[in-house]
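#structure-requests
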Amino acid sequence: MDQQSLVSLILILLTFALYIGISVYNRAKVTSDFYVASRGIPPFWNGMAIGGDWMSAASFIGMAGTVMILGYDGLAYIMGWTGGYLLLTFLLAPQLRKYGRFTVPEFIGDRFDSNPARLIAAIATIIISFTYIIGQLSGSGVVIGRLLNLPASTGVMIGVVVIAIYASLGGMKGVTWTQVAQYMILITAYIVPIVFLSLQISGNPLPWLTYGNVVNELGALDRELGISEYFAPFEEGNRAQFLALLFTLMVGTAALPHVIVRFYTVTTMKAARWSGAWALLFIALLYLSAPAYAAFSRFVIMTQVVGSPIDDLPAWTEPWLNTGLLEIADSDGDGVLAWEDLVIHQDIVVMATPEIANLGMFVVGLVAAGAMAAALSTAGGLLITISSSFAHDIYYRLMKPDATDSNRLLAGRVAIVLSTIAAGLVALDPPGVITQIIAWAFALAGGTFFPVLFLGVWWKRMNRQGAIAGMLGGLTVTLTYIFLSMGGVSFFGIQDTGAGVFGVTANLLLVIIVSLMTPPPEQRLQDEAVDLRYPEQMTYKDGEVWMNDEQAK
């Protein structure tokens, strides 16, 4: 093992030890610890944990690479993921927290008083979270594979072991505080390289103020090489796909079960709103940095790598060629590397940039540790969501309502281990790049849940028949379009990553039409729906609003 790999490995092992230590210290002892951290997380720390949960391998590893390769068209990921948090924070999170349940399937089952709706929601949650976690494990494979000069598939299995240990030990309580630590590590690891890059290129350590000049220079380089301009709109795609992807990511963000459950870990509706506000701040630190990362990385490659003799390439290329994520050709046979001869897998851009810019062993190792933190933080939240959907919503609420606390905890931990192994096996040969796989999860979440959750809170006339029809129809349409698009069939040029626009439309129409064609829900359920819209000190009862502290109008 070379010196660089050793430094990176030490940093990653130290962070692994930290995560497992936090999980052991905050070990879940009762089911409320395991599922919602006993609803005792302060808003500031919960916002940071949401940031850690949200900063997945797709955000850390894949997003800057996507923007670097796609240019303007890649911005749909940044705008969609950020905009979705506004929908969630203002339209759903506080109301769902007031309802006081543990999971999204439990909310749907109790809101519509329907066990079939609960079962469908639980199965859909498992499908969505399983799809998402494949992307996270693929990300861990990229990092560990590069670190140890191993195939990415071997790195995936190492990630599986670490994730299964700390998520099964700590439950939501342990995962929450682990995610706080992971956010601190990953945001430091993400920002440090672009600060150094900004200093190298412009002499200014504030990349957010300098990368605009770099974009202008990239445009000139693109024109000189005769390739599509970096920030020219819709050069790598079309307007319909851009808008469909933007919409899919927004509604998917607002409906992702593992994100929603983070708002259940605070004490009140007000705390849920503040958690969302803090989360937006912490998320913005990375999302405002991603375009700068993409611009600087592309600039360094185009000015310092492209044009080099192929038999005398920089040293950083060799280990990445070994992973299979970087390919070099000599299409015109002149022995000089052209931009068209360089095939960069978008998932290696962030990982390779410190090496490309020769930022030193510690920075390279720090980025590796940050990338692992990003993959592990989201994976932990996803595993808790899969676990709770099975152990709480299916095993406890439907199969064995008299199960003891210890049996429910055991079922939850077994579900974590089995789902991690299954996802790891799929991630050995992932069906797409990280950002693509994650986009599928968002499409499935939006197509299955967003109309049901949104109308379940804001339309009291919605009933169980509409909820069931909407979820089944939305999930089916979204899955069908993803498979059709992968097979070469598309409508309006919309690709598989924008499938949510069709799923949400089908879901919304089915919810409204079926609800209006069937009897309205009981008055009790209608009152519960209206009650969600009022602050916690108020209760809607018998057609009137009452103050909880005085029980008077």
